[in-house]
Amino acid sequence: MSEAAEASTQVKEKGKNKAHRKDKLSAFYWTFYARTYEVSNSWKIDPFLPADNKAGAFSEESSFATLFPKYREKYLREVWSAATTALEAHGIACTLDLVQGSMSVRTTRKTYDPYIILKARDMIKLMARGVALNQAVKILNDDVACDIIKIGNLVRNKERYVKRRQRIIGPDGSTLKAIELLTNCYVLVQGSTVSVMGPFKSLKEVRRIVLDCMKNIHPIYRIKELMIRRELAKDPKLATESWDRFLPQFRKRHLKTSEKTAKKNEKLVQKDEARRAAGLEPAAEEKDKLEKKKKVYTPFPPPQQPSKIDLQLESGEYFLKASEKAAKEAEKRKQKQAEVTKQRRAERAEAFIAPAETAAPTVEEKKKKQKRKRGAAAMEEEMDVEEDEEQSERKKMKKDKKDKDKKSKKKHREAEDES
């Protein structure tokens, strides 16, 4: 509290002209934040006891009610006695209406804490959204807050919505568990809402993760950032420094078509420059692409095309009488019909055109063909005879050579035996 007092005295010393400067506002907000939340270890929130309520019993009754779905009726009936006991300890009365399907809480003469009715309201809301009683009762503690994030109307396409909601949970609930461990919160994804319980500061982080996930930003990016922040918080030297240089900067990978083409053209130019530096000519495809001239962008729309009336005015048809127009149209129709009938007649006449016939060969032509065949057959026979003779000669030569070799070998052996 001493820091806030010092800040306020410094503001008073500055005077009226400098009353609305930034340091005064920051001192005010800091004091407000310090009073509301637990900022550092030096601040300790004492529990609100009956002795602290000096005004006595409340003059008016406050009440809140909430509806619950049909499938929660059985569970709420089973645990309602335990819920009543937990709320009676704080002087809050509660009722379960099974006909209308609602739960309500209200203050009594025994209620001493003015803020506990809001905590009781949050408790029945959490129970209606599927949170178990033993977890929902923790909201009655001063250091625990809750946030119910509505995600049902963030994505229009149902399939996409289901996929993104599943992404918050992750495979076997691993993503949800990581979020819970890093933020010290309890997170429950149920239907079209995400119920969160935990410290005030962490609720903001979880809400950011959930909403970003529904906007197609994967929770892993935020989880990674939280892990880095957790490690940086351990180092006292970095307490007064900015952490932006340590945090990852995730850029969007989805580029527009114009951005993609610009990138592609840049790469082509770089390639061309590299080839020129190496003393090579640019590739043929790249050369063609570079040589193609870009269309000059003009902000003006293209010239307006002439309408049907404008064309009639140009041709003089607009000034004709109705009877003259009808006669002209009839003439056009007749011309078109004449063209169509001419085309159809030509198509029908094609069926009656005789195909081109090949003339039969004369006697002389037949004789010439036979002579050619005979001459060719005789030539083939002669060639076959010549081939047979050549083969027989080759065989004889081979046989004579073998006999000579045998005789020479025999003589050689005899000469060796004699020696």
State the main characteristics.
419 residues; mainly alpha; 14 helices; 56% helix
Task: Name the shape in a single word.
Answer: extended
SS-based class: mainly alpha
In spatial order, strands of the major sheet run: 1-3-2
The beta-strand count equals 6
The major β-sheet equals:
3 strands, antiparallel
Distance between the termini: 138 Å
Helix fraction bin: 55-70%
Estimated share of beta-strand residues = 5-15%
Q: Helix and strand string, N-terminal first?
A: HHEHEEHHEHHEEHHHHHHH
Quaternary status: single chain
Question: Can you tell me the residue ranges where pLDDT is under 50 for at least 5 consecutive residues?
Answer: 1-5, 22-41
Give the number of helices.
14
Radius of gyration: 50 Å
Estimate the mean pLDDT confidence.
82
Structural overview:
- The chain is 56% helix and 8% strand.
- The protein is mostly helical and 419 residues long.
- The strands form two sheets. The chain has a three-stranded antiparallel sheet with strand order 1-3-2, with helices on one face.
- Helix 6 (158-169) runs antiparallel to helix 8.
- The longest helix has 56 residues, at 363-418.
